[in-house]
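ARCHIVE CARD
Drawer: 12
Card no.: 0347
Subject: one protein chain, sequence and derived structure
Cross-reference: see card 0346
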Amino acid sequence: MASAFGEKIMDRSLTAPRPETAGCVPCLSDALFNKGTAFTRDERSRFGIEGLLPPRVELLEEQAARVIANVRGKTTPLEKYVYLSALQAENETLFYRVVLDHLEEMLPVIYTPTVGQACVEWSRIYERPRGLYISAQQRGRIADVLRSWPRSRVGIIVVTDGGRILGLGDLGANGMGIPVGKLSLYTGCAGVPPGLCLPITLDVGTDNEALLNDPFYVGEPQKRMTGEIYDTLLEEFLAAAQTVFPGVIVQFEDFNGACAFRLLQCYRNQFCCFNDDVQGTGAMGLAGLYAAGRVTRRALAEQRILFVGAGEACLGIGNTVIAAMRHEGLSEAEAKRRCLFIDSKGLVIASRKDLVEHKRPFAQDRTALPDLPAAIESFRPTALIGACGKGRMFTQPALEAMARLNERPVIFALSNPTSKAECTAEEAYALTNGRAVFASGSPSEPVTFGGRSHSPGQANNSYIFPGVGLGLLMSGSKRATDAMFFAAAQALAAQVSETDLEQGRIFPVGARMREVAGAVAAAVAAVAHEQGHATKPRPQDLRAEVVRVMYQPQYA
């Protein structure tokens, strides 16, 4: 018997208007229904669109061949992004056919690292509506704004307030590129139907002076809201989302650190929500450490991890790693002693009086040190993980120290976009004599050092959140729990093959994203059923059900 989620996927009302009532304008303007030149002659006659398209009737494969040729003809990643965005707004089936057929090639274009530049330029490349913008002007009627969305059913909302876009900081309403991109990965990587996806930006202002002075800025040119007025807007939005779209999953994305932790703690036990920057990054980082341990022959509980950064990403990984170390038998105190953090003001230590609330549980009883190399010499880490949003933080002395202390030093340079990375792959291998176990947040080209080719994998949340979202949808889970992200990390780590490790990868190749998302989704759904959070019947074979319900971009 098909699951309820599977039945929803087969319901065309999620993806298109009924052809008999579509009419000329909806037929060609609804991106979920539009086939463009693939409309048959009979369909063109029935829908009243004869003459509005070139005479030739094309197959989806023929259209896709034209698109990929055009993409490859563009000279810059941003030009490719703009072209594909226009296609997505016109014909989602064709867009996802191209993405799925060329997944490894398309992922860096539709998301990291190109999406960072797209967000910076958002107000200048803006051409057409995409997603919903909600601002303070709509207080008291946010539910009405949500009802203006043309789809009556929504399964996943990705929402940002633009407060901390990747490593680029406060981009205000320009941050819409992030929820749009994340939801493209939900469909491309995990097969979540595009009709179930809703990107939202909360325009709460910006403190970015360049944007406030930009005559083309698409957001409200006002300072960022804080305090009670901000909290009230968030509360109304989240309540309205559950009213208009009952049971919808909410993914918090790229809020600044203080808001991210506070919102997660406030709402995680009220409805199904999660913060990808905290929990998704945590699961991804843990999976990377599990895979790296297969190279270094060092168990997780034996690792000593120095985090450069103490925001959502590093604290998210640290919190997940500490929980996993405890699962392996360490006490909480010992697990915390094995994870040391550095923020913009130095070591996160107990003697500091300026630590914000969410950093205090990780503070160690240590003395201050002048710089990163000194911290490495003192702490003697086995792994160095950076997600501080500041480029070239892993200096030559720091990397050489890691190499001197470890036969196979683990180096994760996770900040995005590429310009913000703590080091490059070339630097990591050259300064560790080719011995680094390396991963970066943005894609890296293969590096040859000492006669050996290294093909480092991309340490990106796209290995985690699409599968998590699919698993939550499949199970109809009422909550997104820590145990689900722990299971997601284990599922991802299990997808790393010995061939991957031999070639220098501790994450699978991008071409296997759907396979990885399927494994993660099944693991998350299993936990939802085991913990009693599922509202859908459990299929006999979760992996088979995942394959069955995944959206495939084909014309009806």
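Annotation on reverse: The first strand starts at residue 132 and ends at 135. Residues 1-23 have pLDDT under 50 and may be disordered.
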